[in-house]
Specification:
The protein has helices spanning about 75-85, 160-170, 240-245, 275-285, 340-345, 400-420, 425-445, 450, 470-480, 500-510, 510-525, 545-560, and strands at about 50, 70-75, 95-105, 180-185, 185-195, 200-205, 215-220, 220-225, 250-255, 265-270, 290-295, 310-315, 330-335, 350, 365, 370-375, 375, 380, 390-395. The chain is an alpha/beta fold and about 575 residues long. Among the domains are: about 55-230 and about 340-425, FAD/NAD(P)-binding domain, CATH 3.50.50; about 240-335, FAD/NAD(P)-binding domain (3-Layer(bba) Sandwich). It has a 6-stranded parallel sheet, covered by helices on one side. Strands 9-13-10-11-12 form a 5-stranded parallel sheet, with helices on one face.
Length: about 575
């Protein structure tokens, strides 16, 4: 049997390699380790924590020898993970760290903070997450080490449970002196004052409570606002004419969706085949007169979910050119989001280029709305206009385990800020980026700029351990390879152990199976802990419990031969 740790936070205090595993799911390779609770802070809010929504400017000393002033922009999953990694370093490594985290919401949690009423376009919602939304996979794929979901959370966790989870992760961070969190503060502009040899970040920060604007100064910037803030809204041939022919016709991006009632008696066309497309196909089918779903196989051969009951798949084509599907009167765009960072663009440090430009330049940071370049492992900016290690990105990737991946990126930023010698020369890191892009070009026949930041494109398989392992392992293990003395430090596994625990890798590998089967069963049997969902939630507290629930559900799925195209 595959076992996971059974303590309250699902980890033990010693390195352990005694778990037994299912060999049919896990090729022979180094074991994973149990992230030690003694190395990760999870003992509650420290007395030195400062949470503020005030307007006073941060003072910048002209001389700050030994100080490392670090700004984190965003306190969703990415920003919280980065903050956790920074303050979790041993005290001697984070000596001189002065950390300030900014978020424009009234609470930590980023996109998971509810906004149940969307503003009227063109105003953009703070979040795309609507009531009734579930996680895209079993919630152990969302978590960071040492902190589990609350007991008896269904495997596909509801939105509000995820928000509470990230609040718990945040509250378990003991913030040291010199660390400040500023909610309802928006960073509107980031400029680098200096050159590639040295300088400092000047951030324009708007206090949303008072309206005051202050300029605040830092040495390092971690951009972690999350990737789902700017909706990608394509336009189509004859779109205006299509809308004008019938006043009832609507085109709406999924970011504005909140309630299935909007589809009442409508003939709906869903555009987009990702998890949002699937979810909206399901939701619209409950109240719409008819639902069509148009999607295409993405680069990399990602699985196309079967259409939910009552939803008709149609070719990608036709869309709304006035001739096909003439009866459609409601189009919802599940077309994703643009990868952009307005505060960097305002500061002249991120140039927008054409979406299909091909290869982007090496000598300055650009985005084509899918792909930011040049970045080392989608984390470290290689722009030569400021020193290496001045700008990091966390949470920019898609299709990776959120908590584990964001925490890995946070660890990379934290350790390399503490020890800049861990970074090789820019030319070496740029060569690594080019090699990865060449691999994608050779394997899939496309540029990375076409597919964007994805762990299943250009890396070892995201749901297994082919090649050198999943993205998060590659990033964390690279620190250990550069400096073997880091082995066993907070977040860094000892030699011979993997960052991703095997029990978690098993769940990640089968996440799609669980997601598809769970939604199919929700549609046929309903939801709620008093029904079948309770069989996979009641009494569950630890990661071991949730692992057992995943295994049992996969067994049920296999016995029912649900969606046999997925591996079990």
């Amino acid at each position: 049997m595959l076992r996971a740790p059974t303590s309250k936070h699902a980890y033990t205090n010693e390195w352990r390699a005694t778990c037994t595993f299912l060999p049919s799911h896990h090729p022979d390779e180094s074991p994973a380790y149990n992230h030690s609770a003694s190395h990760d802070r999870s003992c509650g809010r420290g007395s030195n924590a400062t949470v503020a929504a005030t307007s006073e400017p941060l003072q910048s000393s002209a001389v700050h020898s030994g100080e490392k002033r670090i700004a984190i922009i965003g306190l969703g999953a990415a920003g919280i993970s980065a903050l956790r990694a920074l303050v979790g370093l041993p005290k001697d490594l984070r000596e001189g760290f002065i950390i300030t985290a900014f978020d424009d919401r009234e609470s930590v949690g980023g996109l998971w903070v509810p906004q149940d009423t969307a503003p009227v376009p063109p105003l953009v919602p703070k979040t795309a997450l609507y009531p009734g939304l579930r996680t895209n996979g079993p919630h152990p794929t969302v978590t960071v080490p040492n902190t589990t979901f609350e007991p008896e959370t269904p495997l596909l966790a509801p939105r509000d449970a995820v928000w509470r989870y990230w609040q718990t992760v945040y509250n378990d961070i003991e913030l040291p002196a010199g660390t400040t969190v500023k909610l309802q503060h928006a960073v509107t502009r980031a400029t680098w004052v200096g050159s590639g040899l040295g300088g400092e970040w000047h951030l324009n920060v708007l206090n949303l409570s008072s309206g005051d604007v202050a300029t605040k100064v830092f040495d390092h910037l971690i951009a972690a606002p999350g990737p789902n803030h700017v909706p990608h809204i394509p336009t189509f041939v004859a779109q205006d004419q299509w809308l004008e022919r019938d006043s009832r016709r609507v085109i709406m991006h999924a970011m504005w969706y909140r309630d299935q009632k909007v589809f009442q008696n409508r003939i709906v066309l869903i555009l987009g085949g990702g998890p949002s497309g699937l979810d909206l196909a399901r939701h619209s089918s409950w109240s719409a007169q008819k639902v069509f779903w148009s999607r295409q196989e993405s680069v990399g051969g990602s699985h196309l979910y079967d259409s939910p009951k009552g939803v008709e798949s149609v070719p990608t084509l036709h869309l709304i050119n006035g001739t096909a599907l003439p009866e459609v009167d409601f189009v919802i765009l599940a077309t994703g989001y643009e990868v952009t960072f307005p505060f960097l663009q305002e500061g002249g440090l991120l140039d927008e280029v054409e979406r299909d430009i091909g290869l982007q330049p090496d000598d300055h940071l650009t985005t084509n709305s899918r792909y930011v370049r040049p970045l080392y492992e989608s984390t470290l900016s290689l722009d030569p206009r400021y020193p290496l290690g001045s700008l990091f990105f966390v949470g920019i990737l898609r299709y990776y385990p959120t908590g584990l991946g964001c925490y890995a990126q946070g660890l990379f930023a934290a350790y390399t800020i503490a020890r800049p010698s861990l970074l090789g020369p820019r030319s070496e890191l740029l060569a690594s980026l080019r090699a990865r892009e060449a691999r994608v070009r050779a394997e899939f026949g496309v540029e990375m700029g076409k597919v964007g930041h994805r762990v299943d494109i250009g890396y070892g398989a995201s749901h297994g351990f082919e090649d050198k392992g999943p993205f998060q392992d590659l990033l964390v293990h690279s620190l250990r390879e550069h400096d073997p003395s880091l082995a066993g430090m907070p977040g860094i596994p000892p030699r011979g152990f993997n960052y991703t625990e095997r029990w978690r890798a098993y769940i990640i590998k089968h996440a799609l199976n669980v997601t598809y089967g769970w939604h199919a069963r929700l549609d046929s049997e309903g939801e709620g802990l008093d029904g079948w969902e309770g069989d996979y939630a009641r009494g569950l507290r630890t990661e071991a419990d949730y692992l057992d629930a995943v295994s049992r559900f996969l067994g049920w799925l296999k016995s029912k031969k649900v969606n046999s195209s997925l591996s079990t």
